[in-house]
Amino acid sequence: MEKTTVVLVDATQYGSDPAIVRVIEKHYPLVYVTRQDDLGRVYANQAPIGRVITCFDFDFPDIASLSMLSEAKQQFTSVPMLMFTEQHSEALAVWALRTRIWDYFVKPVIDSSVTASLDRLNQLLAESSNRDPRTTIQQTHPLPDDARFQKHRGEDKSVDAASAYIDQHLADKLMQANIAELCGTNSYQLSRAFKRVYGITFQEYILRRRIEKAIELLRNNSASVIDVCWAVGFHDASYFTKMFQRHTGMTPSQYRHKWLTSRKDASLPFQLSTRNPVKL
């Protein structure tokens, strides 16, 4: 099967992630461009345009860089687009979904996941190459609020990368030394960085993120409390209940009952004290 050309748009502040460049180059023809380049001209040099995939690489996306992606999606509706980002939030992920981004990756990426996504797209584009093109009406969506603030790389880079990794692997056993190595630092420096940024230790941060995720999952009445317990990385139901009650003031079952009986009021009388408070 002929390989689709991948256009990688560098929308970062300090240069595209070398790991992403390597994994794409290993499997697909790669055209590397910057945000200043004219995508229309780039596509014009790739024949046919129906065999092009575009990847947007962000570190900390702001309004200008996200608008660039949105406008490209509006203009080139037939080109599937993937998004890589170092800064991650639920609002950003939802925006990407509504903008009809094919896939959304939080760095550091897992090579096999990126390759699988590209392979699937490559197959779909090959299958549709003989079909009549369709015009798709695209709707613009408001940019997430956190895009108003441009973050800068530096001492918090390892914290952002570690936080993103933790969010993606809450159900797994999370070892501080392993995560520090993945983020290009050591356990001691990562612990200090978390304390500086969040005001809590690395382990406390993991615990709070697990409780936050449990709060979210408990709103799904089809999931049992024990299912939620395992899904967020606890392997002891009694310990899960103890930690949940310590952070929220009620047991998981009590929380679910209270939320189900008061759905009209989205705010419960407690919230975890994190840098980004839980919205209940």
TrEMBL record:
GO molecular function: DNA-binding transcription factor activity; sequence-specific DNA binding
Superkingdom of this protein's organism: Bacteria
One protein family per Pfam: HTH_18
Keywords: DNA-binding, Transcription, Transcription regulation
TM ranges: none
GO biological process, one term: positive regulation of metabolic process
InterPro entries named in the record: CheY-like_superfamily, Homeodomain-like_sf, HTH_AraC, HTH_AraC-typ_CS, Tscrpt_reg_AraC-type_HTH
Organism: Marinobacter panjinensis
Occurrences of domain HTH araC/xylS-type (ranges): 160-258
UniProt-recorded name of the protein: Helix-turn-helix domain-containing protein
